[in-house]
Amino acid sequence: MTTAQLSPRAAALLQDTYGRINTVDTLLRLQEQVFTQSDLKQIGMDLNTAFFSYGVTGIWTRLHGCTPLRAIVDIASKLDGFGPATRDWLLREIGEPDDDSEGTIERAKQSATLVLVDRPQAVYLDGIEVGVNWASHPTPWEYLVVLARAGKAGETVDYMSMGDNAAPDSLKKYKYALKQLEGMPERMKDLIVPAGRGTQRLDLQPADIRIFERIANDEYREWRPWQAVAKSRAIPCHNPLMGQTSFCKGQF
To answer: Would residue 90 count as lying in a domain?
Structure first.
Protein backbone atom coordinates (compact mmCIF):
# COMPACT_ATOMS: atom_id res chain seq x y z
CA MET A 1 0.00 0.00 0.00
CA THR A 2 1.15 3.57 -0.76
CA THR A 3 -0.26 6.90 0.35
CA ALA A 4 -2.13 7.15 -2.98
CA GLN A 5 -4.55 4.56 -1.57
CA LEU A 6 -5.23 6.50 1.63
CA SER A 7 -7.52 9.38 2.48
CA PRO A 8 -5.94 12.78 1.68
CA ARG A 9 -5.64 13.66 5.37
CA ALA A 10 -3.92 10.39 6.29
CA ALA A 11 -1.63 10.56 3.26
CA ALA A 12 -0.55 14.10 4.11
CA LEU A 13 0.15 13.23 7.74
CA LEU A 14 2.19 10.16 6.83
CA GLN A 15 4.16 12.07 4.19
CA ASP A 16 4.97 14.78 6.72
CA THR A 17 5.83 12.27 9.45
CA TYR A 18 8.09 10.26 7.15
CA GLY A 19 10.14 13.35 6.39
CA ARG A 20 10.25 14.30 10.05
CA ILE A 21 11.35 10.95 11.50
CA ASN A 22 13.82 9.85 8.83
CA THR A 23 16.70 11.65 10.53
CA VAL A 24 19.80 10.77 12.52
CA ASP A 25 18.27 12.50 15.55
CA THR A 26 15.29 10.13 15.44
CA LEU A 27 17.61 7.13 15.21
CA LEU A 28 19.57 8.31 18.24
CA ARG A 29 16.33 8.75 20.19
CA LEU A 30 15.30 5.22 19.26
CA GLN A 31 18.70 3.96 20.41
CA GLU A 32 18.32 5.72 23.77
CA GLN A 33 14.62 5.13 24.42
CA VAL A 34 13.38 2.14 22.41
CA PHE A 35 15.99 -0.26 21.04
CA THR A 36 17.04 -3.19 23.22
CA GLN A 37 20.48 -4.78 23.18
CA SER A 38 18.97 -7.57 21.09
CA ASP A 39 17.72 -4.99 18.57
CA LEU A 40 21.15 -3.40 18.30
CA LYS A 41 22.72 -6.82 17.80
CA GLN A 42 20.20 -7.62 15.09
CA ILE A 43 21.04 -4.45 13.19
CA GLY A 44 24.51 -5.93 12.78
CA MET A 45 26.35 -2.69 11.96
CA ASP A 46 26.94 0.70 13.48
CA LEU A 47 23.88 2.94 13.43
CA ASN A 48 25.47 5.51 11.14
CA THR A 49 26.06 2.88 8.44
CA ALA A 50 22.58 1.43 8.98
CA PHE A 51 21.00 4.86 8.64
CA PHE A 52 22.64 5.59 5.30
CA SER A 53 21.92 2.07 4.04
CA TYR A 54 18.26 1.77 5.05
CA GLY A 55 16.97 4.94 6.67
CA VAL A 56 15.09 4.94 9.97
CA THR A 57 11.94 3.30 8.63
CA GLY A 58 14.00 0.68 6.78
CA ILE A 59 15.77 -0.27 10.01
CA TRP A 60 12.43 -0.58 11.79
CA THR A 61 10.90 -2.81 9.12
CA ARG A 62 13.91 -5.16 9.32
CA LEU A 63 13.64 -5.39 13.11
CA HIS A 64 9.91 -6.00 13.22
CA GLY A 65 9.03 -7.55 9.86
CA CYS A 66 6.33 -4.94 9.29
CA THR A 67 5.27 -2.79 6.34
CA PRO A 68 7.00 0.57 5.79
CA LEU A 69 3.80 2.49 6.50
CA ARG A 70 3.35 0.59 9.76
CA ALA A 71 6.94 1.51 10.63
CA ILE A 72 6.14 5.21 10.26
CA VAL A 73 3.15 4.92 12.59
CA ASP A 74 5.01 2.81 15.16
CA ILE A 75 8.10 5.02 15.28
CA ALA A 76 6.07 8.21 15.69
CA SER A 77 3.94 6.53 18.38
CA LYS A 78 6.98 5.29 20.31
CA LEU A 79 8.50 8.76 20.33
CA ASP A 80 5.23 10.49 21.33
CA GLY A 81 4.58 11.92 17.90
CA PHE A 82 1.10 10.37 17.76
CA GLY A 83 -1.43 9.95 20.53
CA PRO A 84 -3.45 6.70 20.83
CA ALA A 85 -6.41 8.06 18.83
CA THR A 86 -4.24 9.21 15.92
CA ARG A 87 -2.31 5.95 15.96
CA ASP A 88 -5.49 3.85 15.87
CA TRP A 89 -6.92 5.95 13.04
CA LEU A 90 -3.77 5.66 10.92
CA LEU A 91 -3.56 1.91 11.51
CA ARG A 92 -7.13 1.60 10.25
CA GLU A 93 -6.22 3.75 7.25
CA ILE A 94 -3.30 1.51 6.27
CA GLY A 95 -5.35 -1.64 6.84
CA GLU A 96 -3.50 -2.77 9.98
CA PRO A 97 -5.75 -2.00 12.95
CA ASP A 98 -3.99 -2.97 16.15
CA ASP A 99 -6.30 -5.67 17.43
CA ASP A 100 -5.78 -9.39 17.83
CA SER A 101 -9.13 -10.54 16.52
CA GLU A 102 -10.37 -12.69 13.68
CA GLY A 103 -11.05 -9.45 11.82
CA THR A 104 -7.32 -8.80 11.77
CA ILE A 105 -6.74 -12.17 10.15
CA GLU A 106 -9.36 -11.44 7.51
CA ARG A 107 -7.66 -8.17 6.65
CA ALA A 108 -4.27 -9.88 6.61
CA LYS A 109 -5.54 -12.38 4.04
CA GLN A 110 -6.39 -9.50 1.73
CA SER A 111 -3.04 -7.72 2.03
CA ALA A 112 -0.39 -10.40 2.68
CA THR A 113 0.75 -13.16 0.34
CA LEU A 114 1.06 -15.85 3.00
CA VAL A 115 -0.95 -16.09 6.22
CA LEU A 116 -0.62 -18.87 8.80
CA VAL A 117 -3.00 -19.46 11.70
CA ASP A 118 -2.04 -22.00 14.35
CA ARG A 119 -5.45 -23.01 15.78
CA PRO A 120 -7.25 -24.28 13.91
CA GLN A 121 -4.28 -24.83 11.61
CA ALA A 122 -4.78 -22.97 8.36
CA VAL A 123 -2.67 -21.55 5.54
CA TYR A 124 -3.84 -18.83 3.17
CA LEU A 125 -1.99 -18.04 -0.04
CA ASP A 126 -3.00 -14.93 -1.98
CA GLY A 127 -6.16 -14.78 0.12
CA ILE A 128 -7.25 -18.36 -0.63
CA GLU A 129 -7.09 -21.16 1.93
CA VAL A 130 -4.75 -24.01 1.03
CA GLY A 131 -6.91 -27.13 1.04
CA VAL A 132 -4.74 -29.39 3.19
CA ASN A 133 -5.78 -31.16 6.39
CA TRP A 134 -2.76 -30.03 8.40
CA ALA A 135 -3.78 -31.97 11.51
CA SER A 136 -3.09 -35.14 9.52
CA HIS A 137 0.28 -33.87 8.32
CA PRO A 138 2.16 -32.48 11.36
CA THR A 139 5.64 -32.61 9.84
CA PRO A 140 4.84 -30.59 6.69
CA TRP A 141 2.96 -28.12 8.91
CA GLU A 142 5.95 -27.67 11.21
CA TYR A 143 8.25 -27.29 8.20
CA LEU A 144 6.04 -24.54 6.77
CA VAL A 145 5.84 -22.77 10.14
CA VAL A 146 9.64 -22.79 10.44
CA LEU A 147 9.97 -21.40 6.90
CA ALA A 148 7.35 -18.72 7.56
CA ARG A 149 8.89 -17.57 10.83
CA ALA A 150 12.33 -17.45 9.25
CA GLY A 151 10.93 -15.53 6.29
CA LYS A 152 9.22 -13.06 8.63
CA ALA A 153 12.57 -12.48 10.31
CA GLY A 154 14.42 -12.20 6.98
CA GLU A 155 16.29 -15.43 7.71
CA THR A 156 17.07 -18.64 5.88
CA VAL A 157 16.47 -22.17 7.18
CA ASP A 158 18.96 -25.01 7.50
CA TYR A 159 18.37 -28.55 8.69
CA MET A 160 19.24 -27.63 12.29
CA SER A 161 16.19 -25.36 12.31
CA MET A 162 14.05 -28.49 12.24
CA GLY A 163 15.17 -29.91 15.57
CA ASP A 164 17.58 -32.44 16.99
CA ASN A 165 16.36 -35.35 14.88
CA ALA A 166 16.91 -33.61 11.54
CA ALA A 167 19.72 -34.62 9.18
CA PRO A 168 21.60 -32.65 6.51
CA ASP A 169 19.23 -33.92 3.80
CA SER A 170 16.06 -33.28 5.84
CA LEU A 171 15.08 -30.03 4.12
CA LYS A 172 14.93 -31.73 0.73
CA LYS A 173 12.74 -34.46 2.19
CA TYR A 174 10.45 -31.98 3.93
CA LYS A 175 10.01 -29.96 0.77
CA TYR A 176 9.28 -33.09 -1.26
CA ALA A 177 6.70 -34.24 1.31
CA LEU A 178 5.04 -30.82 1.23
CA LYS A 179 4.87 -30.85 -2.55
CA GLN A 180 3.16 -34.25 -2.52
CA LEU A 181 0.28 -33.13 -0.31
CA GLU A 182 -3.08 -33.23 -2.02
CA GLY A 183 -4.38 -29.69 -2.40
CA MET A 184 -0.95 -28.01 -2.27
CA PRO A 185 -0.88 -25.29 -4.98
CA GLU A 186 2.05 -25.03 -7.36
CA ARG A 187 2.64 -21.43 -6.28
CA MET A 188 3.33 -22.52 -2.71
CA LYS A 189 5.89 -25.01 -3.94
CA ASP A 190 7.57 -22.35 -6.08
CA LEU A 191 7.91 -19.96 -3.12
CA ILE A 192 10.34 -22.31 -1.36
CA VAL A 193 13.71 -21.65 -2.95
CA PRO A 194 17.37 -22.54 -2.27
CA ALA A 195 19.26 -19.89 -0.32
CA GLY A 196 22.73 -21.36 -0.48
CA ARG A 197 24.24 -24.74 0.23
CA GLY A 198 21.94 -26.71 2.49
CA THR A 199 19.57 -23.80 3.15
CA GLN A 200 16.13 -22.71 1.99
CA ARG A 201 13.95 -19.63 2.28
CA LEU A 202 10.58 -18.31 1.25
CA ASP A 203 10.75 -16.06 -1.78
CA LEU A 204 8.75 -13.35 0.00
CA GLN A 205 9.45 -10.11 1.81
CA PRO A 206 8.80 -10.14 5.59
CA ALA A 207 5.81 -7.82 5.23
CA ASP A 208 4.18 -10.36 2.87
CA ILE A 209 4.10 -12.98 5.64
CA ARG A 210 1.65 -12.85 8.58
CA ILE A 211 1.54 -15.46 11.35
CA PHE A 212 -1.19 -15.62 14.00
CA GLU A 213 -1.30 -17.56 17.27
CA ARG A 214 -4.53 -18.25 19.12
CA ILE A 215 -4.34 -17.11 22.75
CA ALA A 216 -8.00 -17.45 23.78
CA ASN A 217 -11.36 -18.46 22.32
CA ASP A 218 -11.61 -15.76 19.65
CA GLU A 219 -8.40 -13.85 20.37
CA TYR A 220 -5.31 -14.06 18.22
CA ARG A 221 -1.88 -12.54 18.61
CA GLU A 222 0.35 -11.85 15.63
CA TRP A 223 3.74 -13.50 15.87
CA ARG A 224 6.64 -11.08 15.30
CA PRO A 225 10.36 -11.88 15.08
CA TRP A 226 11.48 -9.68 17.97
CA GLN A 227 14.55 -11.76 18.75
CA ALA A 228 15.43 -12.98 15.25
CA VAL A 229 18.77 -12.18 13.66
CA ALA A 230 18.59 -11.80 9.90
CA LYS A 231 21.37 -13.01 7.64
CA SER A 232 23.29 -11.25 4.90
CA ARG A 233 21.28 -10.97 1.70
CA ALA A 234 19.90 -8.48 -0.82
CA ILE A 235 17.42 -6.17 0.89
CA PRO A 236 14.90 -3.83 -0.75
CA CYS A 237 15.49 -0.22 0.23
CA HIS A 238 12.72 2.12 -0.83
CA ASN A 239 10.62 5.14 -0.08
CA PRO A 240 7.51 3.53 1.42
CA LEU A 241 5.33 6.43 0.44
CA MET A 242 6.10 6.44 -3.26
CA GLY A 243 6.55 2.72 -3.89
CA GLN A 244 10.02 3.29 -5.34
CA THR A 245 12.36 0.34 -4.84
CA SER A 246 16.06 -0.30 -5.28
CA PHE A 247 18.21 -3.08 -3.86
CA CYS A 248 21.18 -2.89 -1.55
CA LYS A 249 23.23 -5.57 0.18
CA GLY A 250 24.29 -5.68 3.77
CA GLN A 251 24.39 -7.58 7.05
CA PHE A 252 21.04 -7.00 8.69
So the answer is: yes
Rounded to the nearest integer, the mean pLDDT of the chain is 83
Is 64 part of any domain?
yes
Distance between CA 109 and CA 103 in Å, rounded? 10
CB of 244 closer than 8 Å to CB of 237: no
Q: Are residues 112 and 199 in the same domain?
A: yes
Instruction: Please list the residues that pair with 169 across neighbouring strands.
Output: none
* Residue 236 confidence (pLDDT) above 60: no
CA atoms within 13 A of residue 77's CA, in its CB half-sphere:
17
Q: What is the pTM of this model?
A: 0.61
For β-strands 122-125 and 157-158, DSSP reports them as unpaired
130, 124 contact by CB (below 8 A): yes
Quote the radius of gyration of the chain (alpha carbons, Å): 19
As for how many domains the chain has, the answer is: 2
Q: What is the per-residue pLDDT across 62-109, written as a single tens digit (0 to 9) for each? A: 887 778 998 999 999 989 788 889 988 998 898 877 655 667 888 889
